[in-house]
């Protein structure tokens, strides 16, 4: 690696044997100093250190601390902060509510990710096939929920779920299914998952649709001339080509799953079935705010962050994707 | 380590080439003229209008109201600000049950020099809540919220039921109403309202925390609370009352369409009913609480709050002066009662409460009932981690309510007790039992 | 390409319309619900519209001297200014990462990737504690500044820069004697334009969506964005009547500008998450 910044080749062109800048006599302009890339990066690095780096380090530090009360703990000076070693981590991992909450987001993820991405892929392929007049309208309509903040979306769905005011129940009753309590213990997971699916399908659909649009049409021509159906084309040509995009949508959906928070938090006051530790992040929130124990909250945060890293990178390694790597 | 980190953080902020002045509305300070600016966190509606009167009369102590979402979020924010070392207001509304938590976090300033003389203006129970039984004064009581019973008089009359005098009467009435109309219920057990359940336990004679020397005791799972939990669990199990939370759109709908025909609530209930079920105006009546023992009638509280000066205030004297005016001056009391719909804690509030609330216009004795109720409040000690106990209540009783099993209700108390004690021990409190 | 006559497929049409219905139904519901008076909200059929929309908007506008509109303006400020600044910072960083070789590059890039994975909820508390130490909480800055850094935005900008800017163009600009900064402003930014619109929209939605950060940072409700304000209206606490009509009306009004923005910028919207990075 040289210390003089050199213009990097985009990976997409590397295989093509086009003569490149490196082949020509290079004129060293005075403006091209070694500091240039750093100057471009400076604002990002400063902000990153201030608002991501420092808080993360601080959270790690807090996770090793705890408060010690003396006497009755009333009045000033009765609380001191002391080192806690790994006791916060031990408490967090042995909390009887922790494993169930992990299991819950596991089940939630198993519902949300396949359903959301399956629908997104289906809609993207239908739009791309171009065999309908309603493409423009439906594309916009399906994408629309992305514009609705999760807090507002949960509020809307919450109204729609409550048995007495729910049109969903009217419909179910109408077709003779009976009137289930959508916020009851047997439905609540699906009720929360539905909000995530509603909010996320459109976005993922656009991602996949964009990838489909980038495929040159002539790739289908031969298949069409051979009499392949649209379904066959989709399976054999389109899906394999956009597989990298699907991997990325999967990873980002996975991350979002691990971070599910706003939806259950907003629905919580409406139901008996969402506990304050329903998901791991809700436990963080409860410890930090309801229980005023930022130290345990920090420890749980660190555990969640590490789990997220392990899962995301583990998955990318598994599928051998180079998406998250540099091309050099 | 911490210093170094803050240093890095501050340095990187400085690098941001911007004139971030940290323009901060709550930054208190006094200018050359001796004028003092105070911020006041409260969730009471229209408090800004009450404060306007103070500001007009006291140009040198200007108070700005920052309306908060409610008791819990406000305390959460205050505690975070205290921990951070800045960001707290000067004056803070705090529910009585949160006072020990706030004192324990060193969030409230001792104002005994300014407010110590106000003792005689308040009921003893309220005064104890703000002094924690000691010599310090951490807040001045603002409102009192004794439990009362509210019911749809038209429905009761039609079924020829009288307002329940005992909890047995209440259970019988609940059964009768639900039997007469399968859609109607006398009440609901709400696992999201720990404050109400605490008040019911208080009425039955429980006192969940206690102090003995430098040792705390926790008695959430005592006989009185067991009795209350078992009673409500029984009603839910037999299906004569509901198990769904209050303060949901569904609950609103039930109040409006007349399927929720009773409400165990507190003196502030008329304001809530008026807002949530305006169409039922004139159909409600208020009554004293159903009793466990009619020979010794008691009640509990749901809500009620005091006004405190925070330890971060740079002008505690002026702040104390303001809260003394707010909670004891006759003009302020009148404003509190009429504009902010508060039931003042001070014992000379009768002048401000001449006519019943608009929603109960036909009930001339409303405030007589309220003041009778205020006099029979059972003593109750709150501990330094009410927040933990309440969040344990939400989770444990949520599960119990969902199961509709009476046994689960009483078992939930054991969970509350364990979680509350564990939390105190983990923080290093000495806890007996 | 020769015009290939495609058969219309009714299955495709029906499936897409069902999807659209599912996505529009709650929005339609909020539109209907916002037209009802507070009594009607819970008594009339869910999808039966009423006539009180403008009364409700007036009520909401009167709530504490038009506080709602202040929340809207704040949200526009946080999301608009925050996303613009974020896009610019991301573009610079993405350009540097895509087009230069320098020591420490892989460290920076890996940090960005790690940053993508960190949940905002976890960051909000330490961010608050640190900002409080420099006395900056409860101000516009406390929400704006943390919103500017977006690892995901940098990641996207890097992909777009790699894909959209041929090296020859940069060389040519340099041959003409333009400095790096001028090249960036006059050549790079315009070439990345449609990619940057995507980054902007992403960040705009992220800030608009963000609840936790402003919720923790702000004590003064005059500084609230719409999400925090609405949640406060919804959770009034036990002693206050609920304000469902205002909440529903507020929810409706709050999504209108976002929908308008999306429709306006739709043609720029291109999210090719993988193309720049995976090929090769």
Would you mind describing this structure in some detail?
The complex is a heterotrimer of chains A (328), B (433) and C (280). Chain A is globular and about 85 Å long. Chain A is mainly alpha-helical. Chain A has 14 helices and 2 strands. Chain B is 44% helix and 12% strand. Chain B has 17 helices and 11 strands. A 5-stranded mixed β-sheet of chain B has the order 2-1-3-10-4, sandwiched between helices. In chain B, strands 8-5-9 form a 3-stranded antiparallel β-sheet. Chain C is globular. The longest helix of chain C has 33 residues, at 67-99. Chain C has a single domain, classed as MetI-like (MetI-like fold, Orthogonal Bundle). Chain C has helices spanning 10-33, 40-43, 53-62, 67-99, 105-116, 120-133, 140-148, 151-164, 167-175, 180-191, 193-209, 212-217, 226-234, 244-265, 275-278. By secondary structure, chain C is an all-alpha fold. Chain C starts with 9 loop residues before the first helix and ends with a helix. Residues 273-280 of chain C have low confidence and may be disordered. In chain C, helix 4 runs parallel beside helix 7 (140-148) and helix 8 (151-164) packs antiparallel against helix 11 (193-209). The chains are: A mainly alpha (328), B alpha/beta (433), C mainly alpha (280). At the A-C interface, helix 1, helix 2, helix 4, helix 5 and helix 6 of A face helix 1, helix 4, helix 5, helix 6 and helix 7 of C.
Topology:
The complex is a heterotrimer of chains A (328), B (433) and C (280).
Chain A: H1 11-14, H2 36-62, E1 65-69, E2 79-83, H3 87-94, H4 98-129, H5 135-143, H6 150-161, H7 167-174, H8 188-213, H9 218-225, H10 230-241, H11 243-258, H12 262-267, H13 280-290, H14 294-318
Antiparallel strand pairs in A: 1-2
Chain B: H1 2-15, E1 36-42, H2 47-57, E2 61-67, H3 71-84, E3 91-95, H4 99-104, H5 112-115, H6 124-131, E4 140-143, E5 147-152, H7 153-158, H8 167-180, H9 194-204, E6 209-212, E7 215-218, H10 223-238, H11 249-256, E8 262-266, H12 269-276, E9 284-287, E10 305-309, H13 316-328, H14 330-338, H15 366-375, H16 386-403, H17 406-427, E11 431-432
Parallel strand pairs in B: 1-2, 1-3, 7-11
Antiparallel strand pairs in B: 3-10, 4-10, 5-8, 5-9, 6-7
Chain C: H1 10-33, H2 40-43, H3 53-62, H4 67-99, H5 105-116, H6 120-133, H7 140-148, H8 151-164, H9 167-175, H10 180-191, H11 193-209, H12 212-217, H13 226-234, H14 244-265, H15 275-278
Helix pairs in contact in C: 1-14, 3-14, 4-7, 4-8, 4-11, 5-8, 8-11, 9-10, 13-14
């Amino acid at each position: 690696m040289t210390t003089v910044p050199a213009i990097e080749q985009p990976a997409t062109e590397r295989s093509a044997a086009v003569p490149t800048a490196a082949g020509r006599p290079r004129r060293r302009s005075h403006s091209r100093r070694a500091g240039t890339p750093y100057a471009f990066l400076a604002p990002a690095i400063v902000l990153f250190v201030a608002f991501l780096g420092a808080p993360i380090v601080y959270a790690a530090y807090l996770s090793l601390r705890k408060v010690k009360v003396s006497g009755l703990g009333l009045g000033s000076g009765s609380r001191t902060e002391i080192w806690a070693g790994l006791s916060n981590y031990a408490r967090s991992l042995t909390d009887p509510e922790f494993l169930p909450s992990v299991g819950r987001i596991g089940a939630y993820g198993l519902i949300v990710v396949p359903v959301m991405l399956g629908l997104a892929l289906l809609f993207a392929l239908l739009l791309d096939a171009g065999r309908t007049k309603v493409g423009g309208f439906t594309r916009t309509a399906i994408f629309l929920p992305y514009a609705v903040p999760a807090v507002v979306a949960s509020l809307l769905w919450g109204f729609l779920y409550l048995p007495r005011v729910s049109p969903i129940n009217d419909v179910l009753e109408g077709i003779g299914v009976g009137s289930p309590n959508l916020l009851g213990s047997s439905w609540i997971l699906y009720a929360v998952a539905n909000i995530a699916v509603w909010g996320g399908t459109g976005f993922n659909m656009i991602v996949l649709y964009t990838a489909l649009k980038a495929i040159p049409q002539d790739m289908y021509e031969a298949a069409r001339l051979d009499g392949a159906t649209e379904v066959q084309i989709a399976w054999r040509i389109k899906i394999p080509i956009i597989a990298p995009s699907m991997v990325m949508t999967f990873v980002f959906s996975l991350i979002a799953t691990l971070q599910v928070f706003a939806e259950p938090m907003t629905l919580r006051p409406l139901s008996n079935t969402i506990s304050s530790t329903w998901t791991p992040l809700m436990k963080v929130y409860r410890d930090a705010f309801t229980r005023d124990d930022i130290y345990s909250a920090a420890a749980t945060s660190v555990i969640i962050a590490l789990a997220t890293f392990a899962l995301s990178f583990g998955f990318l390694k598994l599928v051998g994707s180079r998406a998250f790597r540099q091309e050099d | 380590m911490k210093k170094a980190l803050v240093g890095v953080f501050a340095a990187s902020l400085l690098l941001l080439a911007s004139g971030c002045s940290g323009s901060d509305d709550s930054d208190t300070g006094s200018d050359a003229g001796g004028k003092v600016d105070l911020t006041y966190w409260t969730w009471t509606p229209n408090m800004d209008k009450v404060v306007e009167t103070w500001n007009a009369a006291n140009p040198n102590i200007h108070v700005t109201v920052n309306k908060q979402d409610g008791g819990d979020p406000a305390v959460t924010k205050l505690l975070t600000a205290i921990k951070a070392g800045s960001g707290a207001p000067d004056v803070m509304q705090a529910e009585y049950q949160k006072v020990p938590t706030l004192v324990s976090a060193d969030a409230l300033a001792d104002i005994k020099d300014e407010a110590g003389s106000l003792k005689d203006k308040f009921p003893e129970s309220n005064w104890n809540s703000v002094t924690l039984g000691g010599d310090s004064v951490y807040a001045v009581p603002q409102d009192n919220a004794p439990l009362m019973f509210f019911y749809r008089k038209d429905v009761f009359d039609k079924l020829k039921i009288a307002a329940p005098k005992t909890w047995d009467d209440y259970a019988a009435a609940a059964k009768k109403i639900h039997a007469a109309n399968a859609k109607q219920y006398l009440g609901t057990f709400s696992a999201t309202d720990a404050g109400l359940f605490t008040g019911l336990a208080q009425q039955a004679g429980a006192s969940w925390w206690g102090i003995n020397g430098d040792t705390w005791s926790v008695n959430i799972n005592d006989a009185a609370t067991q009795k209350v939990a078992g009673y409500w669990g029984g009603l839910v199990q037999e299906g004569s009352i509901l198990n769904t939370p209050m303060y949901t759109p569904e609950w609103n709908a039930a109040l409006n369409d007349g399927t929720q025909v009773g409400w165990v609530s507190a003196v502030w209930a008329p304001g809530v009913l008026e807002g949530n079920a305006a169409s039922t105006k004139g159909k409600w009546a208020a009554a004293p609480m159903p009793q466990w023992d009619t020979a010794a009638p008691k009640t509990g509280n749901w809500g009620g709050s005091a006004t405190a000066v925070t330890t971060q205030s740079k002008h505690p004297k002026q702040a104390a002066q303001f809260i003394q005016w707010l909670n004891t001056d006759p003009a302020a009391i009148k404003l509190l009662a009429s504009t902010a719909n508060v039931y003042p804690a001070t014992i000379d509030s009768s002048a401000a409460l001449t006519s019943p609330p608009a929603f109960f216009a036909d009930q001339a004795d409303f405030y007589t009932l309220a003041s009778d109720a205020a006099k029979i409040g059972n003593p109750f000690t709150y501990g330094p981690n009410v927040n933990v106990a309440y969040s344990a209540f939400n989770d444990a009783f949520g599960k119990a309510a969902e199961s509709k099993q009476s046994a689960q209700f009483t078992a939930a108390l054991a969970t509350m007790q364990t979680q509350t004690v564990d939390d105190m021990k983990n923080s290093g409190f000495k806890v007996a039992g | 390409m020769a015009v290939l006559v495609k058969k219309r497929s009714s299955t495709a049409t029906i499936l897409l319309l069902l999807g659209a219905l599912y996505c529009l139904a709650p929005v339609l519901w909020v539109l209907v619900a916002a037209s009802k008076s507070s009594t009607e909200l819970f008594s009339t059929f869910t999808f039966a519209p009423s006539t009180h929309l403008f009364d409700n908007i007036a009520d909401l506008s009167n709530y504490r001297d038009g506080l709602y509109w202040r929340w809207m303006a704040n949200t526009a400020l946080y999301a608009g200014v925050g996303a613009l600044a974020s896009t610019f910072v991301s573009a610079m960083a993405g350009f540097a990462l895509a087009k230069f070789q320098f020591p420490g590059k892989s460290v920076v890039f890996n940090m960005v990737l790690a940053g993508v994975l960190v949940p905002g909820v976890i960051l909000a508390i330490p961010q608050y504690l640190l900002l409080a130490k420099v006395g900056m909480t409860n101000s516009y800055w406390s929400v704006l500044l943390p919103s500017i850094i977006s690892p995901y935005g940098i990641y996207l900008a890097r992909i777009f820069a790699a894909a959209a800017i041929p090296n020859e163009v940069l060389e040519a600009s340099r041959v003409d004697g333009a400095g790096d900064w001028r090249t960036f402003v006059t050549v790079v930014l315009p070439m990345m334009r449609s990619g940057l619109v995507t980054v902007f929209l992403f960040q705009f939605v992220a800030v608009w969506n963000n609840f936790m950060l402003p919720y923790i940072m702000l004590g003064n409700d005059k500084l609230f964005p719409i999400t925090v304000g609405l949640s406060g209206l919804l959770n009034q606490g036990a002693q206050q009547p609920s304000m469902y009509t205002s909440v529903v009306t507020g929810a409706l009004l709050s999504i209108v500008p976002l929908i308008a923005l999306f429709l306006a910028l739709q043609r720029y919207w291109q999210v090719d998450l993988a193309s720049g990075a995976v090929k090769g």
